[in-house]
Amino acid sequence: MSFNDRYNCLDEAAYACADLCETLEACAACKCVVLPTSTGGDWGDVMDVFFCLMPILFLVYATIKPNPLPTTTSLPAAALLMYLVRLMYLQSDPILATGSVILGLHEALTPLSIMAGAITLFESMEATYCLPYMMREIKALTAGHPIAEAMLIFCFAYMVEGASGFGTPAALGAPMLVSVGHPPMESVVTLLIFNTFATVWGAVGTPIWFGFGSLGLTDDEYSDISRKAAACLAVSGVILIPAVLTLLTPWSVVRANLLFIFLSLVTCVGPSVAIAFVSYEFPSLIGGIAGCLGTALLIQYKVGLAEFKGAKRRSDSGHTSGSMHKEEESPVHDNDNNDTSPDNEGVEEQEEANLEQVELGEDDNSNEMDVNEEIAQVEAALGPRKSFSEGYLSELVLRTFPIWGVVLLLILTRVEQIGIKEQLQKREPYFDIHFGTWGTFRLSSAIVFQLRDILGYPGLNWKYELFYVPFLLPFVVVSAIIIFIYRKNLATSPADIARTVTQRLRNPAIALFGALALVQLLIRSGDAAPANILGTILSDWFKEAFVVLTPLLGALGSFFSGSTTVSNLTFGDIQVIAAESIGTSKTSILALQAVGGSAGNGICLNNIIAACAVVGLNIGEGQILMKTYKFVFANTTIATIIMLVLFIRFD
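and the corresponding structure tokens:
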């Protein structure tokens, strides 16, 4: 066979050399990258690209058509379509194709268990009134200032993304903005865009260490991806966040508070970037925590925060009962009597305003009664806010334990120098059970599950590290602790929490089984993989211009899957092949892929539907998309420019 069917060379002399070569070694001596074409179908490059992209194109169509298919249908259907393409057009080994599907079904257990743990944590925070307590503190601190509210919730959502990911920040943060008086639609759009700046790391780095886990990267390469992505997101955040805030408040208000906005970003994004240089698991989590603390201090001492005279009027708007407010100033201030008790008036005013501001049509009265009852229940459970002498600090520490407890356990189990990480990942000693041609089941002393040589095909291996995957540790353990601490005052029982987790996982489980089966069919195995074929041909067509497509592919993956992790799993292999073909750093290309996947969460229909549902917003998803896509495109454009200026070089 001649290997000079397609190749990339550095100069004309190298091309002349390559024209005469007959082996890979000879072509390599010519300083050329050889791109074999024998792994595709029989109808040429164009049809290879068409058939390999057909399942992806089907997903896009199924998502954007007037009556879109749910991902519980579209993702399994796309996996089936890719399976048929592998067998009927690419003529793949049926054992490899079927084994890839089985491997994908097993791989889905990792993100599913992380989701289960994250949902358990936040349902437990609701049941123990820890989350309502945090919301009450936010309302008291911001005192109705829209920029202060938005930036504090930005940092909170950033932190939540680092702890749980999988669409939680938008679904949690949008109701928070609505509850402090912002319009529902603008709140949803704002949180969707806010979330695009943190999901590159997702829940404890899952999009990086799991999303790119099949590429055989080293820890140093994971860290390099994290650093480069952080640099891109830091620049785009500084540019775009002020623009996003104009969705909630006029530009004149944003402009008057630019110093506060930038300082708040520094307290959140700054530590995130710093952590990204040493860890690819903690940037969102640590950055979010630092941002919450730093922004709270900025608000407390009004650093860069211009007076907002419309705070009281905004709270009053929508009132039907004409409630009276005694004070217009911030409730967070030095009291004349030098009382060190945290002020309650801002909370009372804001809650009173929120009861009457959010109008949901003809059922306003009944809805308002429901909200009244809910707030009354929360206030009865929490009691009045304590003064420092009454134990305010101890209550603050206990009520925020779910957050700092998760961080503490993650640090203990992730920092290699501590020594726990290695113990949780040990694969020896172990015992084997042979399940015939299905594969060999292996269980290690650290409870690491493995299924090796699935269907007897070498290299088709699955593993699940029970105590290292962020499921039992930290989420379930922390949830159990806070439920035990507040066991006498629970809003819902542990059994109800378990039922809620099961119900919320039902549809995502079906979608993820389909998504991971599709991913494995795309990336298995070697030169015959559709991802390899696509990366080879597309990079040859577009040359260096493929860099422009890189973040758009990432955004596309998140658009149809709702997950940066799934986007990275789907397109990571294509990006690596393309990087090698055009002669640039694969970590730079993968960082762009991750940033694109993160940005794509702003246009993901799953996230839009979830966020709209929790705020009771009954509008077409297209209306939200028309507002978010501009920011998503701007984000990917800025990231591409930064990457080209700072990191990407072509051989």
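(Above: one complete record from the training split.) Residues 207 and 565 are 4 Å apart (CA to CA).
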